UniProtKB/TrEMBL annotation:
Species lineage: Eukaryota, Metazoa, Spiralia, Lophotrochozoa, Mollusca
Protein's name in the database: Hephaestin-like protein
UniProt cross-references to InterPro entries, sorted A to Z: Cu-oxidase-like_N, Cu-oxidase_C, Cu-oxidase_fam, Cu_oxidase_CS, Cu_oxidase_Cu_BS, Cupredoxin
Cofactor: Cu cation
Family (UniProt): Belongs to the multicopper oxidase family.
Leader sequence residues: none
């Protein structure tokens, strides 16, 4: 990318240079290859840019795909597809599924043997109306998925609507297609890792480092790639200017396999909507269109800090072709907008009050925060030198335009309208460093690009030296009808993408629709907008780190910049650069329409779940109260305020919550008294928090292998290991449980419809317009509470403890005490126009939202449209309902952790610092159970099924939930066919499908680490005796 030899590029040297203790850039892999005939003697060529990917398998509705698979490797493998209909003997996945004999041969094809897989593209597996003509999936080996895929066995599968393809598989419309797989190949988790260690100059030393899990050695084998290439070494993707291309963007990998893919100078469209960043999660598949207007070599990158630095980079070559035109994207108008921006250095205080404004305590007095916010001999404290964007009135740069206080560290809003040409004049007032201006969500020509990289001839990028000024121009795309009225993107400096951002150079770019060529959209008088950047500024990566050490550390010469505690103290988890509710000015009135523009950038930990107490909002046609952000992503959240009070907004991802990514927003009664939701039909629940023993793996077996987890050689043995030093699978917990009445002496026994809930509390159900009354009794030994997501409750009934020194009765229910919560269900708590008939939320105890929930206190809420529930509080429109909580349940953070050690592992003396012990207490669970220990997941063929999917926890709790044997249509927003759905921490999703494919099927999180640790189970679709499965009469076969 930077035209350096590997040995002169420090960021790439550790990955690419072979040495005594490094493998380098060449690894033995196993890949899928296509042959021209059944003799397997001639490989069919594929596009060079496909790299490690297997051949493209294409088919359309009505086709049957026949795969003649020969295993020419040295160990057993299989072929498992996503997105097509298969029978048990054609699934290609190894697990205990009640099949035997011939029906098991598809699961593991031995070396030298062959197997024929047959897959059908039936209507229930087809792209629905409103979806793209073709949608992308993957196929991969599924014996040991993490190891199989890291070894290389992944390929693309594309299914299309009828009439899209020619007989040879090419598109009738001749649209160009590219496939981009974003994956970190973990060569430490490859079948060939032992062989690859022999490439080291000292193989024995590499073997030793691998056995010791040496961090630097292991990291050198993490190849962050596009199609198996790093640092732009893959063949470029080539197309002509004005040529429309379809990108199939896919992700696979581990917990760090979260990618925000950006195409420099280009605008992407997903179902017509404008995007600057395409999300590529583990086993997620997105289709996007692009029509590049400007010739040149353009950078493709992953915006996640580690991925960008460590090589997730590629090139797009756009060749000049025909007459230059902007008509595809831009309306013809003469609107030119000017902005005069400066870059200036300043000292920034992350907590100007010096206090944790949630509690009123001084940050310097808090043992949990003082290391990060108090200057000391080897600590910088809370004030840092940074660089920021500012706005001036004109090109003289004499009159500065004030930015509202609630913008914090953000640069000024660049507000533009679709079709505008925008001119930014940038003056660099910084003292030593060159900087630049780079906008996202818009297009620009190569001479106006603010990113520095090698474009095959020269190092390009328009940069502004200190004391100089430069002009940048860009063009604003037309938003689609399905885009919100205004859509937010980011702008930044990108001379050095990572260090410029962490130095502070970032701001919002807002694109709004134009009602007509002459009228700008005027909103109602009570329309407000706020911009919120959720991110971790890593001051260790700032250009000003050394200056900050010299100015603020009291013993600067003694500072060790590699010290782990020092490094952590310089990571500031804030909203707009402010922590612990120090962000001011988020004020509004009841009845206001508020657009919250939320944004993020950063590293692998910058997975954010912005949660708004007291209100819900619309995001991409989902009804939510918690959003989701990955680096470089941004959303428009549309809220109508109806609930007066002082409310918290916070990132619910545990690390950011703990480190102060929280703020207040204030809703006042300014006009007429608010029309509060009335207390109508009441549904009463009697729920207790009580301490129980919970077994995460009562069957003590693996659903994949069927083997006994007590066997010390089993991967899952660490989670059930029980002796003097390890707790095992049984833990004391606090759980929500339902009782029959206010006496709380008779617990409601779970029946076959809800036994699957496992560790979760009972389902709380209601319809829009009703009131939920929860009589809560705390039968545990410490204070707890109940906090619902998505519902209407008054400020004094907020179940989260804001201030420990001044608790409310609702936020801290003492042991043996009761409290009656009243939650109303207005329309804003129920399904939106495009949602299914019922949507899900969750409730938790929130005295401490981290420790309480890890102790076990979480449960589901289901809210339906009026008339959907019957007298038994079950849905009339579906046959079966299931709630699944995908969750890395961290027993290390439970209130009962020490109790569990004392009771189950009394010999354990060392608690922290023992990685095996800490890992043994991390349960990668579904409803609190691992390795398929769940019960009650039975469905009949023909049943209409509703699944409610939930997640909670840390940045590791992004889950890509994959169900085998079925697909579903994601109805929220655009209708999309899928068999994987992504859920982020503290969010919920719901899918519905008709069960058509009998068998026992795998259900699991597709994140590699989670598969390996047991986040998997099975569900069974039973064939009714009277039901005959329709035979499939294909229009034709496609053989591969």
């Amino acid at each position: 990318i930077h035209s350096f030899l590997f040995i002169f590029s420090p960021s790439s040297e550790k990955f690419l240079v072979n040495s005594l203790i490094r493998i380098g850039r060449i690894y033995k892999k196993v890949i899928y290859e296509q042959f021209t005939n059944g003799q397997f003697n001639k490989i069919k060529p594929k596009e060079k840019w496909m790299g490690l990917l297997g051949p493209v398998i294409r088919a359309e509705v009505g086709d049957t795909i026949v795969i003649h698979f020969r295993n020419m490797a040295t160990r057993e493998f299989s072929v498992h597809p996503h997105g097509v209909r298969y029978t048990k003997g054609n699934e290609g996945a190894l697990y205990v599924d009640n099949t035997f004999g011939p029906l098991k041969k598809d699961e593991h094809v031995q070396p030298g043997e062959s197997y024929m897989y047959t897959w059908d593209i039936t209507s229930e597996f087809a792209p629905p109306a409103g979806d793209s003509a073709c949608i992308s999936w993957v196929y991969h080996s599924h014996i040991n998925t993490p190891v199989d895929t890291n070894s290389g066995l992944i390929g693309p599968l594309i299914t299309c609507k009828r009439g899209t393809l020619r007989t040879d598989g090419s598109r009738i419309d001749n649209k160009k297609e590219f496939i981009l797989l974003a994956k970190t190949y973990d060569e430490n988790v490859s079948f060939y890792s032992d062989e690859n260690q022999k490439r080291c100059g000292d193989p024995n030393e590499c073997k030793k480092l691998a056995e010791e899990e040496d961090e630097e050695y292991m990291d050198s084998n993490l190849m962050r790639t596009f199609n198996g290439y790093v640092y732009g070494n893959g063949p470029p993707f080539v197309l002509n200017a004005n040529e429309e291309v379809i990108w199939y963007v896919m992700g696979m990998g581990n917990e760090a396999g979260i990618h925000g893919i950006q195409f420099a100078g280009q605008v992407m469209r997903v179902h017509g909507q404008v995007y600057s960043t395409i999300e590529a999660m583990q086993a997620s598949f997105r289709s996007a269109t692009m029509k590049p207007m400007n010739p040149g070599r353009w950078l493709i990158s992953c915006a996640v800090t580690e991925h960008y630095t460590d090589g997730a980079l590629a090139f797009l070559d756009v060749k000049p072709q025909g007459t230059y035109t902007e008509n595809w994207r831009f309306p013809i108008n003469n609107n030119i907008k000017y902005y005069y921006l400066s870059i200036e250095e300043r000292f920034w205080d992350y907590a100007p009050s010096g206090k944790n404004n949630l509690t009123g305590a001084n940050l310097s007095d808090d043992p949990n925060t003082e290391g990060a916010f108090t200057s000391g001999p080897h600590r910088i404290g809370r004030c840092y030198k940074k660089a920021s964007f500012f706005q001036y009135k004109d090109s003289t740069f004499t009159t500065k335009i004030k930015t509202p206080d609630n913008m914090g560290l953000l640069g000024p809003v660049i507000r533009v309208y679709e079709g505008d040409k925008v001119v930014v004049v940038l003056k660099n007032f910084a003292t030593l460093r060159p900087y630049s201006f780079l906008p996202h969500g818009v297009t620009y020509t190569k001479p106006n690009e603010g990113t520095v990289y090698n474009d095959s001839k020269i190092i390009t990028g328009k940069i502004v030296e200190p004391g100089k000024k430069m002009t940048y121009e860009f063009f604003v795309p037309k938003l689609s009808d399905s885009d919100p009225m205004c859509k937010v993107f980011l702008y930044q400096s990108s001379v050095n993408h990572v260090r410029d951002l962490n130095s502070g150079l970032i701001g919002p770019l807002l694109i709004c629709k134009r009602i007509s060529p002459f009228i700008k959209p005027d909103f109602l008088r009570n329309h407000l907008e706020y911009f919120l950047l959720f991110n971790t500024f890593d001051e260790n990566l700032s250009w000003y780190l050394d200056q900050n050490i010299q100015k603020f550390a009291k013993d600067p010469q003694g500072v060790d910049v590699t010290n782990e505690d020092f490094v952590e103290s310089n990571k500031k988890h804030g909203i707009n650069g402010l922590v612990y509710a120090n962000l001011p000015g988020l004020n509004m009135c009841v009845g206001d329409r508020v657009d919250w523009y939320v944004m993020s950038f950063g590293n692998e930990q910058d997975i954010h779940s912005p949660y708004f107490h007291g209100h819900t909002f619309q995001q991409e046609n989902f009804r939510e109260d918690t959003s989701n952000l990955i680096p470089a992503q941004s959303w428009t959240l549309q809220m109508t305020t109806q609930n007066p009070g002082r409310w918290l907004l916070e990132c619910r991802t545990t690390i950011h919550f703990k480190e102060g990514m929280r703020a207040f927003y204030n809703v006042k009664i300014c006009y007429n008294a608010p029309d509060l939701p009335r207390k109508t039909n009441i549904r009463r629940y009697f729920i207790a928090a009580e301490e129980l023993r919970w077994d995460h793996a009562p069957k003590k077996r693996s659903i994949v292998t069927g083997n006994d987890l007590n066997n010390v050689d089993e991967d899952g043995n660490i989670y059930i290991r029980h002796n003097q030093y390890f707790i095992g699978s049984v833990y004391k917990k606090a759980l929500f449980r339902e009782y029959t009445d206010e006496k709380f002496d008779q617990r409601v026994v779970r029946d076959s419809s809800d036994v699957h809930l496992g560790v979760m509390g009972p389902i709380i159900r209601a319809e829009v317009g009703e009131t939920i009354e929860v009589h809560f009794k705390n039968k545990a030994s410490r204070p707890y509470s109940m906090l619902p997501h998505g519902l209407y409750f008054q400020n004094e009934e907020d179940g989260e403890l804001y201030n420990a020194s001044n608790p409310t009765a609702a936020s801290k229910v003492m042991p043996n005490s009761t409290f009656k919560y009243t939650w109303r269900v207005p329309a804003s708590s129920g399904p939106g126009a495009k949602d299914p008939n019922c949507i899900s939320w969750h409730y938790i105890s929130a005295v401490d939202p981290i420790k309480d929930v890890y102790s076990g206190l979480i449960g589901p809420i289901i809210i339906c449209r009026k008339g959907i529930l019957n007298n038994n509080e079950k849905r009339k429109d579906v046959d079966k309902e299931f709630v699944f909580l995908f969750w890395v349940l961290d027993e290390n953070q439970s209130w009962y952790f020490k109790d569990n050690i004392n009771y189950y592992a009394p010999g354990r003396k060392k608690i922290s610092g023992d990685e095996d012990f800490e890992e043994s207490n991390l349960f990668h669970s579904i409803n609190g159970q691992i390795y398929g220990n769940n019960e009650g997941l039975l469905i009949n063929v023909g049943d209409k099924v509703a699944w409610y999917l939930m997640s909670y926890g840390s940045e590791k709790d992004v889950h890509t939930v994959h169900l085998h044997g079925q697909t579903f249509i994601n109805k929220a927003g655009m209708r999309q066919r899928s068999d994987v759905i992504t859920i982020s921490p503290s969010t919920t999703r719901q899918v519905e499908f008709e069960a058509t494919n009998p068998g026992t099927w795998f259900l699991h999180c597709h994140v590699n680490d989670h598969i390996a640790a047991g986040m998997e189970t099975v569900y069974t679709i039973l064939k009714k005796r009277s039901h005959l499965v329709r035979s499939f009469n294909p229009f034709g076969n496609r053989d591969y």
